[in-house]
Amino acid sequence: MQLGVCYYPEQWPRSMWANDAKRMVELGISHVRIAEFAWSRMEPRAHEYDWTWLDEAVSTLAGAGLKIVLGTPTASPPRWLIDAYPDILPLRADGTRWNFGSRRHYDVSSERYREECVRIVTAMARRYGKHPSVIAWQTDNELGCHDTIPSYSTAALTRFRTWLARRYETIDALNRAWGNVFWSMEYPSFDTIGLPNLTPTDANPIHLLDFRRFMSDEVASFHREQADVLREFAPGADVLHNFMGFFTTFDHYRFVENGAVDVAAWDSYPLARTEVIALPEEDKARYARTGHPDVSAFDHDRYRAIGAGRFWIMEQEAGPVNWAPWNPVPAPGMVRLWAYEAFAHGAELVSYFRWRQCPYAQEQMHSGLNLPDNQLSQGGLEVARAAQEIAASSVLSGLPPASRAKVALVFDYETQWMFEIQRHGKTFDYQTLAFDYYQALREMSLDVDIVSRNADFSQYSLVVVPSLAVMSDDLVRAIENSSAQWVFGPRSGSRTPEFSIPLTLPPGLLQSALPVRVLEAESLRPTLTPATSLHGVEGNAIHWREHLQPGAGTEVLARFDDGWPAVVSHGRVRYAGAWFDHALHRALLDDAARAAGLAIGTLPEGLRVRRRGDVTFAFNFGPDVVAAPAPANARFVLGTRELRTADLCAWLEA
Amino acid sequence: MQLGVCYYPEQWPRSMWANDAKRMVELGISHVRIAEFAWSRMEPRAHEYDWTWLDEAVSTLAGAGLKIVLGTPTASPPRWLIDAYPDILPLRADGTRWNFGSRRHYDVSSERYREECVRIVTAMARRYGKHPSVIAWQTDNELGCHDTIPSYSTAALTRFRTWLARRYETIDALNRAWGNVFWSMEYPSFDTIGLPNLTPTDANPIHLLDFRRFMSDEVASFHREQADVLREFAPGADVLHNFMGFFTTFDHYRFVENGAVDVAAWDSYPLARTEVIALPEEDKARYARTGHPDVSAFDHDRYRAIGAGRFWIMEQEAGPVNWAPWNPVPAPGMVRLWAYEAFAHGAELVSYFRWRQCPYAQEQMHSGLNLPDNQLSQGGLEVARAAQEIAASSVLSGLPPASRAKVALVFDYETQWMFEIQRHGKTFDYQTLAFDYYQALREMSLDVDIVSRNADFSQYSLVVVPSLAVMSDDLVRAIENSSAQWVFGPRSGSRTPEFSIPLTLPPGLLQSALPVRVLEAESLRPTLTPATSLHGVEGNAIHWREHLQPGAGTEVLARFDDGWPAVVSHGRVRYAGAWFDHALHRALLDDAARAAGLAIGTLPEGLRVRRRGDVTFAFNFGPDVVAAPAPANARFVLGTRELRTADLCAWLEA
Amino acid sequence: MQLGVCYYPEQWPRSMWANDAKRMVELGISHVRIAEFAWSRMEPRAHEYDWTWLDEAVSTLAGAGLKIVLGTPTASPPRWLIDAYPDILPLRADGTRWNFGSRRHYDVSSERYREECVRIVTAMARRYGKHPSVIAWQTDNELGCHDTIPSYSTAALTRFRTWLARRYETIDALNRAWGNVFWSMEYPSFDTIGLPNLTPTDANPIHLLDFRRFMSDEVASFHREQADVLREFAPGADVLHNFMGFFTTFDHYRFVENGAVDVAAWDSYPLARTEVIALPEEDKARYARTGHPDVSAFDHDRYRAIGAGRFWIMEQEAGPVNWAPWNPVPAPGMVRLWAYEAFAHGAELVSYFRWRQCPYAQEQMHSGLNLPDNQLSQGGLEVARAAQEIAASSVLSGLPPASRAKVALVFDYETQWMFEIQRHGKTFDYQTLAFDYYQALREMSLDVDIVSRNADFSQYSLVVVPSLAVMSDDLVRAIENSSAQWVFGPRSGSRTPEFSIPLTLPPGLLQSALPVRVLEAESLRPTLTPATSLHGVEGNAIHWREHLQPGAGTEVLARFDDGWPAVVSHGRVRYAGAWFDHALHRALLDDAARAAGLAIGTLPEGLRVRRRGDVTFAFNFGPDVVAAPAPANARFVLGTRELRTADLCAWLEA
C-alpha cells in the first residue's frame, strides 16, 4: 500500500524541483513517475541528446528518497521526427491523415517509427537502466487512446498481409476460412487483400475480426520491442505499461504473455468513466460525484488477473478532470476513498495524476494534488490524510497481496470485438453485459476475480461467463474437471474462431456440457421485452433473446410468457437465453451462488465490500448514511460502522 | 400463386445439392433463383470461365422439376477485375473511394465496367439462355442499395455533361433554364459544369435535380445493356430486376419503359422496413413482430403497376434478418401470412430468401427456410403449410390476376427527389405523406392501385394525388376527361420541370381545374399545429401549411382557426392546403370516396382486407383477436372469421 | 428612419426595372441595394467587362429618386475564375475542397483571389464611385457564412506562419508562450508549424486560439483591401459590410478598427434565428411566429456599438425564409414591428430582403415584399403601412440618434472563442450566457448598450460582464475609475492572453478589485444543480460552478447548500461563481441595478420597451393582449396602450 505521483519536471522551473521532491516525501509519497512525453527535451534535434535536465531531475528526486518510474516518450514523437518521416503519422478509416499537434500521432505499424522508438528507449535505458532509484519503466502512454488504433496505413496493410499469410499459409485456406465465395469476395493472392474500411456495406466479419486480431498483436509487439530493450539495459526494474479502464481495443491477456510486463498498471478516472460508459441515466445522476461503485473495481479485478496478481494504479484521479462531457468536482472524501478501494482489491501502489495542475496546454483543466499556485488541492489534502492513516496502522501497512476469490467472471476481448462487429441489435454491448453481471455479484457482497477463458478454474466455486463467443474444447474440459457452478450468458458458443455459426448451432461446443440448441436469436428494440419469472423474481429480457430447444436431460428453470425457455440447466451448468434486466441477473446469480455454497450478503445501495488478508473494507458510494455490514465484534482499523457518503471503514473480524 | 426460393449452390458442398432440390420440391416450391453474386466462381480469373459447377447446379435443380431464375453476378465484381481497373470503384459525395470487400463496389457510370458486365452476361446467356428450365433472368441485385448511387466519379461527371448537352443543347439554354444568373453560377460551356457535391451551401436545386434524373437514367441504361443481351440469347425467358421497398433513388416508371422488364420483382422485408421508415414510434412498437399492416401492401400495389400487372416477390423475409437496428423474430404465422398478402395483391410468385441460413460471411444472421444445421426453421414450417393449403384448394390455386381497383393513388419519383432537395421543413417527406394517404384508404377497406402521373385514369372513381410537384397539361386534360373525384395534396403544382415556382403561383397548371393561388407556404415545427375541422373531424395541420387564396367558383370546405382556407374544391377536384394529421386525412378521403360512390368499410385496428378475383382475404397484423368483415353467408376457403394475431382468412361471397 | 430594399435587376427582364423602381418609391422606400453576386454579369469572361446593364439599372433606380447601395460581387467568384485558379476554392478542416456551384467558394487567404477582388472592385468603383446616387458600398456578403471560415488551405498555412512570426518574433518565444514542452509539441522553426486540424486529440488551446485570431484578422484585411479601393474611388460614400446575427467567427470590434466601415450593417432574420440558437424549447415554441423578443435587439444593441452609433439593417426578414429547420410564416404585423424595433434601438435604415421572391435557384422559398407574380406579399403590405405611418408623423420621422444607455453589457469575441475551444462542459456556451444576462436586463425594462471590453465605461451606472476570459490592467483601472456597479459572471479572468490559467488562480487580475480565488471549477451535467438562494430567490446553478475562496474584505452574498460561496462582492464589484438559472440571474442583476439607482420596470412576458429620443416604444412578442407601461398622461404617436400579439405602440411622456 504505497502512494505515488506523476510529475513532469520539464514543465516547471528547475528552481521548483527540490522543493517539489521534498513536499512529495512529506506528503507520504514514495514513487514518482517522470519523463513520458519528454522526447523533444531528451533529443531536441535528431541524434542530439540532452540528458542534463533529466539527470538533474532523477538525482533530485532520488536524493529526496523517492523511487522513480521512468516513462519512455514514444507517445509523442517530436516535430523534427515527423518532418523527417511524415509517414509516421497514422491514417484514419476514412483515409485522412492525422496531424502533428497533440499526441499519439504515430502509426503503430510504421517500421521506421518502431526503429526510432527502439533508438530512443535504448539511449534512455543505457543511461538510467542501472540507476538504483529507477525501479520501474513504463512504455509509451495509454496505447490505443484517442482511437489511434487501428491505423489504416500502407504499413499496416503490408504487415496485415504478412500476418494473414502466416496465419492461413495459403490463399485458398484463407478464402475457405473466410467464406469468401460469398459475394465473390475471393482473393487471388495475399497481396490483393485490402483493409476492411470504406466498403459500401459491411465487410466480411472475419475480415474485420482478423484485422482487429492483427492490430492487437501490433500493439503488443510495439510494446515488446521496447520491453526487450529495457530487459537488457535495466535488468532489475519492473517493466509495465499504463493500461486504461473499460478499454478493449487490444487483447490485454495476449499483450502480457511471456512476461511482457511485470505488473499491470492502469489509469483510473472514476467520474469521467461513469459519465462516458453505457450506464442507465439514473446511475449517472446518482453517482456523478462519487463514480459508479463498480466502475473502478471492475478494472481492479480485471488488471489484477492480467498482472498475475500484481497491479498498480499508475494514474489516479485527484480531482476534476477535463475530458468527459461534463467534469464535476468529486465529493469530498473520494480521492482518499479511491486509494483504499484500489488497495482493498490488491493494488501495490496508487499513483496520483498529477503533482501539480499545469496552467497551460491541453490539460490545464485537469486537476492535480496541487493547484497551479502550488497550494494543496482538496485531493492533495485527502492524500495526505490517507498517507498518515496508513503510516499509523501496522495492519494497513502490512496487508498481504490479495488472495484468490471464490468467484471467477470470465472476460474475453475477442468476444467484445466479435459482438462489436456484429451487434445485430444496436443496443447490444458485451462489456456492458459483463459489467451488469459483475455488479450483481458485487451487490451480493462477493469478491470476484475477472479472468481469461484460459484461466485455471479448478479452485473456483462459481464461474460466471456473461458471454463467450467462441467455446473451446479446453473450456469444456475445464467445466468437466471443476466442481464449480457455471453460468453462461447469451450468445455463448455462438461462433467458431473463423466467425461462423457452429454447424450444430449455438452454443456449439458447450452442447457437450449442456445439451441445448439455439434455433433463432433476436435483438430487441426497447419496447420488446419478453416477460419471465426466475426463482420468484418477475422480469424481462432486454436487448437480446434466443429460442432455446433443450436437449435430453436439460432442465428448464424459467420460461418466457410465449413458452420459450428463458434459463436452462444441466448439472452444474446454467445457460441464460437472453440478456435479462438487472433484477433477473441478480436472481440467476443468487441461485447459482447458493448452489455453490457461497455466503451472500445484501448490501445497501451504493455500499461495496472487499476483503484483503484479514481486513474487510466497506465503501459508501451512495448519497445516504448507511451501516457497514461488520459483525458486532468487529475491530475497526479505519473509520466506524456508520458511513456517510464518500466515506469508508475497515475492520478485522475478532 | 407459386412459391420460390433463393439458393446459392456455390456456398454449399455439391454433395448437398440433390437433396436440397428434392426437399424444395417436397416443400411445395416451384421456382429457384441462383447464380447472383457468383462471378468469382463463373470466371475465377480474367477470361477463364468455369461453368462446370453451374452446369451441375442447373441440371440438378432442373432435374428435380424446379424452374430456374438466373441472376447475373454484376453486383459483385471480383477482386481481379478491380485490380485490373481500380476506377470501377465508386466515389462518394465526400470524395472518398469505396473499397472492395463487400458488394456493390462499382461505379454505375464506368464504361469499362459496363463492358465487363455485357461480357459476363453474354457468356452466361449464351450458355443457359435456351435451357428449358431457365425461365427467367434477374439483372444484378438491388440496384442502388447501400447508397452506392449516385457515384461522384469522373466517369459520372463526363456522362452527366453529355446528358446535359443532349437535354439543353446550348449552354445559354442551360444557364437560363437553371437560373444561373443567381449567385453568378453561369457556366461558360458544358465541360465546366461540375457535380453538385461539396458546395459550401446548397447547390442550385435544378442542378441537384438534373443530376438525380441523370443518375436514374444511368441505372436504367445499366440494366438495359444487360437486358438487351438477355433478349438476344434467352428469347423466351422473363427478364426482371429485383427492386426494393420504399426505395426512390431512381424512377422505376422510366426504368421499365419500352419493355425493359417483363415482370416487376421486389424484395419484401416487412419487419426491418417497419423499423427503419419514418413511422410513429407507437406503430413501430405495435407492429414490431408483424410489420406495419400497409408497409408491404404499399409496394405490392406500386410494383403491380410498374410491372403492368405482373409482379413477383423475388425475396420474401423468412424469419429474422440482420440489417435493421433491431431484428426481432416474426410472430408465428407471419411468414405464411406475408405470402398470402402478396398473392391477394396480385403476386404471381413469392420466393423466399433464402433456402438455408449461411453460417459464414456478412449475412450469417439472416435466416432462411432452413437453419444452418439443415432443419426447417419456423419460417420453413410455415411455408410448408401455405404450400399444402394452396395445393388443396382449387379456388386458391386458380385465382385470376388482380383486376383494376376503383381507387388510384399517384406516386411520383421526381416529386420525391424535388422535395428531398427542397424539404423546406426538416420533417417533410413526400413518400411518408403518400404512405399516410395510402393507409387511410386501406383502413377504409378500399383496394388501391398505385400509379404514375401518366397513367390512364379514365376508369377510376377516385384519384388521390398526395402531392405532385410538377403538374402537366396532360394531367389537367385527364382530370377534365375523367368522371372521378380527384384529391390533391399540398405542394401540388408548386414547381415547373426546371424547378422554378410557376409565375402564376402554385398550384400552377392545376389552376385551370381548380382556381386557387398559394400566396405563401410554411413548414411547421412540431409545436406549430394550426387547427381546423373537416366534415366534423377536429384536427391539425402538421409539417406544412399554405395560405390559399381561392379563385372564382372555388368552394372552401374547411378553414383554419386563423381564417386561412384548409381545403378547397371546385367541381370534382379537392385541394388540401396542408399536411394534415391522420384523422383529417381519413375525413378528407372518406368524403371524396363517398362522393365517388365507393363502399367504405371500417376495419378494426391492424386488420386489412384485399380482394383478388372472387376471393376476399383478411389479414390481422394487430395483437388482438378480431372478426373479419365477411358477410354472414361467406364461404371460407381459408381460416375462419375469428382472427388471432398474425392469422388470415379468405372467403367467397355466396 | 428610412426604408430600403435589396434588388437584383440582373435576375429580371429589363422591361420590369422601371416599374419596379416606381413601385419602390410609391411604397415609401428610399434606398436600394444592388449588384452583389453579379460578377458573372459584370465580367462574363476574364477582363471583359460589361457595364451596360448595370449602367442602365443604376440610372433607372437613380432616376426614380432612389439612393443606391452598391455591393461588390466577391462572395461569388465566377466559374471562369475558378477554372483559371482552382486554388481559390477553400479547404475544409477534414482536407476536402469545396466546389463551385453555390456561393462563398473562396479561400479568404488566397492572395490570388485577393488580387482579383481588388481588380473587380477597382473597376466597379472607378465606374460608379462618384455617381451622386450611389451613396454607399457594401463589400462582399456575409463574410464567414456557411462555415467557409476558417479555411485550411496552404495559403492559410503560409500566412498563419507569417502572422505567428510577427506576433512572437522567435520560435523560442512561441514555444514558451504556447507551453509546447507539453507533449513534446516544440517546433524547431515557424515553418514547421501546422494548422490545428486533424489532431488525434485536442490541439493546444493557444494553437487553436491563435489560428482563430489569425483568421479573424484575415477576414478584416480581406474587407480592408476592398475598403481602401472604395475610399480612393468613391470618397464620399459610406463603406460597410453586412454582418450577421449571433455570429462570432471574427472579432467585429477589430474588424471596424481604424475606420474600416462608416456604418455597421447587419442582416436580421428573427424567426430563423430563434429556431437555430440555443434557446429553451418552450421559448422556441412560444415565439415561433414572432421571434424571441430579445433576439434581434441583442444584435441591434451590439452593432450600434460596433458602428460607433451608426447602424443599418441591410437585410430585414420580409416573410418566411428558406434556411431554418422549419420556416413558418411570421405572425401578421411582425414585418412592420421589426422595422420599428430596429428604429427604436437606433437604426438609421431598415432595408428589406428582398424586393421580389425569385422563383428559381437556391432562394426560391425566400419571400420578399412581392410574390413571384409581382403582387405585394403580406410583408409588402406591412412595409407600406409603416412607411405611411412614419411619413405622417413628424415625431417619428424626426427622431434623433439613439443616446447612450445607463447599462453596459460587455460582449467579447475572444471569450467566445476561448470557451468554444475549451467548453469543459458540453452545455457551456458563452454567447448563450451573455444572452441570458441581456434578457434579464431587458425584462427589467432597461435600455442596454452592448460594448467591447475596451469601451469607455465612465458614464455607465451598471456594467454587466457575463464573462470575460482575459482580464486586463486597463479594465481593472476602468473599474476603479468608474462609479458604476459591476457584475462579473463565471470564468471571468480565468485565462491569460496566452490561454493559461493565471498563476494567482482565476479571476486573475480582477483580484485587485475583488479578492477571491477560484480553487476549482466544475461543469455540471443537467442532473447536477447545486442549490442556492439570492435576495430571497431560490434557484440553482446550471452548466458551471466554481469553488470560491473569498479574500480579505470580500463579502459572501449567497452560498450553495454545500457551503461554497455562490456570489461574492467587494465594494461596487460582484462576482457570480456559477452559471445560474434565469430567475437567479434576474435577482443578481436586479440587486445590482437597484444599487446603481436605476429605475426597474416589470414587464409582462413577451413585452419589451425601448426609448429613443423622447419616444418610448413598446413591442408585444407574446401571444396575449397586454398593456404597455405608458404613464397615464402619455401621448401616443403610434397605436394605443392595449397591445395584441405582434403589435406595438409609441408615446411621448407629457
Automatic annotation (TrEMBL), chains A, B, C:
Every Beta-galactosidase C-terminal domain range: 606-647
Protein name as annotated: Beta-galactosidase
Annotated ranges, domain Beta-galactosidase trimerisation: 405-598
Sorted UniProt keywords: Glycosidase, Hydrolase, Metal-binding, Zinc
Pfam family of the protein (one): Glyco_hydro_42C
EC number: 3.2.1.23
Catalysed conversion reaction: Hydrolysis of terminal non-reducing beta-D-galactose residues in beta-D-galactosides
Hydrolase recorded as keyword: yes
A cellular component annotation (GO) from this entry: beta-galactosidase complex
Biological process (GO), any one: galactose metabolic process
Domain Glycoside hydrolase family 42 N-terminal: 6-391
Annotated substrate binding sites: 103, 141, 323
One term of GO molecular function: beta-galactosidase activity
Family classification: Belongs to the glycosyl hydrolase 42 family.
Active site: 142 (proton donor), 315 (nucleophile)
